[in-house]
From TrEMBL:
PROSITE patterns: EAL (PS50883), GGDEF (PS50887), HAMP (PS50885). Residues 451-704 form the EAL domain. This is EAL domain-containing protein. Pfam families: 4HB_MCP_1, EAL, GGDEF, HAMP. Keywords: Membrane, Transmembrane, Transmembrane helix. It comes from Undibacterium seohonense.
Length: 708
């Protein structure tokens, strides 16, 4: 209580600004030292002044007293000379004695005037009296000597001069002792003054030090303590405790810094909350994201859990057709319906999260006695039930379906990332098989691992020329001659055996490695054409080009360089492009095709009729050949409607000055029907299967006999 009161009083007495407090502290200390210095200077000046007075007065007075004593002794010595000298020589002795007497009188008179001591004054008075008595006695002695009365002179000397002289010397000694005592007293006084000065300086210095200590203590209490509080608050902020506030203080600067720290803590807390929201939550739906889902299960076991990954079907088409704003609306509404579906289910531990794009994740956990598979079925049913009502997006009504990938945790499932990965595998399987849902199985894992190694194997096959180029002939109907071949890639894996192009070509397209396969096929085709230049100069080879090749603006230059490298005529090379690949981005594809056509390369539209090209684009394409898809050729002899459609395609192609070829012909009836419809050429098993190596050479030799 007293301590708090003391601190309160001190805090109120001292100024509020630290700069003022420090200035006051330093000023007080400076004043104390100035006092010490000033006091020391004054005392030194006083001591110096007294020393000068001592040297000027007291010492001179002592010298005068000593001179007086010497003169007295000198005068008595002169008396002795009178007894032993002749009369003619007494005159100088008398003069010397008179001079001494006069000088003694002057000294006594001078000392009497300068003396301020009463005892000394009395002593001087007695000295003057004894001096007069002494003078009178030796004058009487002089009278007896001048009368040559030796006995009378001796009697006067013994009875008058000697006692007077002794009294005179005694008073002179007393005066000299008084002068010495006075000098000694003055020295003692000076020493006392110096001791007092030393004591005063020490006292003031101690006072200054104590004052400095007191001021330092007050400063520590009123300044350092708030600064320590600031430091503690800053550490609290650094540790993430933003609720800790700096207490108020009267120190203006500290108060400002404290307010700044409090403001900074609030701002950091707000920004950290915003960052945490952005880091752990999806900004569109407000649902937790993948990072937060993984963080929640970081220290938890996933045993007894199920993971359901859901992907909004056709979201990409909605974004491209109706805009990304509509797609965002669908995601937000879907998240709301997912929440509603979970609320309608019995009590369970679920965690709904939003992944990238239109993908959602749902973690489910049940008690051991419940069946997880049945619960997952209930969840999927409840979600689909919520999505039966179309989502209204402005003026559009959009039906939304979710594709489900489901994975149950097993003893082999180590953690949540493994469970999510399994659900992703199941979701991929559902998409590939165009199913609404798929459950994860070990077979899917094996297939996924197989695909993971397939890319490295395909890369090695391309680099080591392990792929094979097979050629399927193209036959003209008018003269049954072969004018070219379509190049087909085949892969005979050393361990896996034959791998169908339907398996590794789409995989290469998804992984972006299809460009390398295309380059390999181009090199093989051009090498073959280079070897045919003398034996079969009229034959051409068509190489299939992927959609990714049409996106590469450097593709025409690469083809041109290969033609120059193998010295092959451009007209002997043909490139087949899918209709859908061209129409994916016609604005970029058409200029690229024009560059290829300018080189002299023939261009063919493969699988025509299965895409969504328009006549407006078709007439702009710099192609030379139209290939009718096999789906229109199968049993065409038995389907009149298909015949009319194919006839229209053929007439349209001829109208655009294009060569029309049908692929996939397997029967004579199909061939004859296409001939009657005006088709130009055919390709298929009826003419020949794809050929390779010796089989290709034998077919070329017996070409005329093999076509009826």
């Amino acid at each position: 209580m007293l301590k708090n009161a003391y601190l309160y009083v001190i805090d109120r007495i001292l100024p509020s600004r630290i700069s003022y407090r420090l200035a006051l502290s330093y000023s007080l200390i400076l004043c104390l030292f100035i006092i010490v210095v000033a006091r020391s200077v004054i005392q030194v000046q006083q001591v110096s002044q007294r020393s000068q007075e001592f040297a000027r007065n007291d010492l001179q007075q002592l010298l005068q007293v000593q001179n007086l004593a010497l003169d007295i002794e000198g005068s008595t010595s002169a008396l002795v000379l009178i007894f032993n000298t002749t009369q003619d020589k007494r005159k100088p002795a008398y003069d010397a004695i008179d001079a001494k007497k006069k000088h003694i009188d002057q000294l006594i008179q001078k000392l009497s005037k300068e003396s301020e001591d009463e005892i000394q004054t009395i002593c001087l008075q007695r000295l003057a009296v004894t001096h007069q008595e002494f003078r009178q006695s030796y004058l009487n002695l002089f009278d007896e000597i001048e009368l040559d009365n030796t006995d009378g002179a001796k009697d006067v000397f013994e009875t008058q001069v000697a006692p007077a002289r002794q009294a005179f010397l005694t008073e002179s000694g007393i005066l000299l002792d008084l002068a010495k005592k006075h000098i000694q007293q003055r020295q003692e006084e000076e020493q006392n003054d110096l001791a007092r000065l030393k004591l005063q300086v020490i006292s003031i210095s101690i006072l200054a030090v104590l004052t400095g200590i007191a001021l330092a203590f007050f400063t520590q209490r009123s300044v350092v303590r708030p600064l320590n509080q600031l430091e503690q608050s800053a550490r609290q902020i650094a540790e993430g405790n933003y609720a800790s506030k700096v207490p108020a203080t009267r120190a203006t600067e500290v108060a400002r810094v404290g307010q700044a720290l409090n403001t900074m803590g609030d701002a950091i807390a707000a920004r950290e909350a915003e960052i945490e929201q952005l880091a752990y939550f999806d900004p569109l739906s407000g649902l937790p994201n993948r990072i937060l889902l993984l963080k929640e299960f970081e220290q938890q076991s996933v045993q007894g859990h199920a993971m359901i990954l859901m992907d909004v079907a056709r979201l990409k088409i909605v974004n491209e057709t109706l805009g990304f704003g509509t797609g965002d609306t669908i995601i937000v509404e879907t998240s709301q319906r997912l929440k509603a579906a979970l609320q309608s289910l019995p009590t369970s531990r679920t965690f709904l999260a939003k992944f990238s794009g239109g993908q959602f994740a749902l973690s489910c956990a049940l008690d051991e006695q419940q069946n997880m598979a049945e619960f997952v079925e209930q969840v999927v049913h409840a979600i689909n039930l919520q999505l039966t009502t179309p989502i209204i997006c402005g003026n559009h009504s959009v039906d939304v379906n979710l594709v489900f990938g489901i994975a149950l945790a097993t003893a082999a499932t180590k953690d949540l990332p493994s469970l999510i990965r399994n659900a992703e595998v199941a979701l991929y399987v559902a998409k590939e098989s165009t199913q609404l849902s798929a459950w994860y199985s070990d077979a899917q894992e094996a297939s996924r691992l197989s695909h993971l190694s397939l890319l490295s194997d395909l890369r090695a096959a391309v680099q080591n020329d392990e792929l094979q180029m097979w050629l399927q002939p193209k036959i003209r109907f008018n003269d049954h001659s072969c004018y070219g071949f379509e190049a087909l890639v085949r892969w005979q894996h050393p361990q896996r055996g034959f791998i169908s192009p339907a398996e590794f070509i789409p995989f290469a397209e998804r992984t972006g490695y299809i460009n390398h396969v295309t380059d390999w096929m181009l090199k093989q085709a051009l090498q073959t054409l280079a070897s045919w230049q003398h034996a079969y100069p009229q034959l051409s080879i068509a190489v299939n080009v992927s959609t990714k090749d049409l996106r590469d603006q450097s593709f025409p230059e690469r083809v041109h360089q290969l033609l120059q490298q193998y010295q092959v005529k451009p007209e002997n090379l043909q490139l087949e492009l899918t209709e859908s690949g061209i129409m994916e981005n016609p604005g970029n594809a058409i200029p690229l095709l024009q560059s290829l056509r300018n080189i002299g390369i023939g261009l063919s539209i493969d699988d025509f009729g299965t895409g969504h090209s328009s006549l407006a684009y078709l007439q702009k394409l710099p192609v030379t050949e139209l290939k009718i898809d096999r789906s229109f050729v199968i049993n065409i002899d038995q389907q009149a409607s298909t015949q009319r459609l194919v006839k229209t395609i053929i007439e349209m192609g001829h109208g655009l000055n294009l060569h029309v070829i049908a692929e996939g012909i397997e029967t004579e009836a199909e061939r004859d029907t296409l001939i009657s419809l005006g088709c130009d050429s055919m390709q298929g098993y009826f003419a020949s299967k794809p050929l390779h190596g010796a089989g290709l050479q034998n077919w070329l030799i017996h070409l005329a006999d093999s076509i009826g």
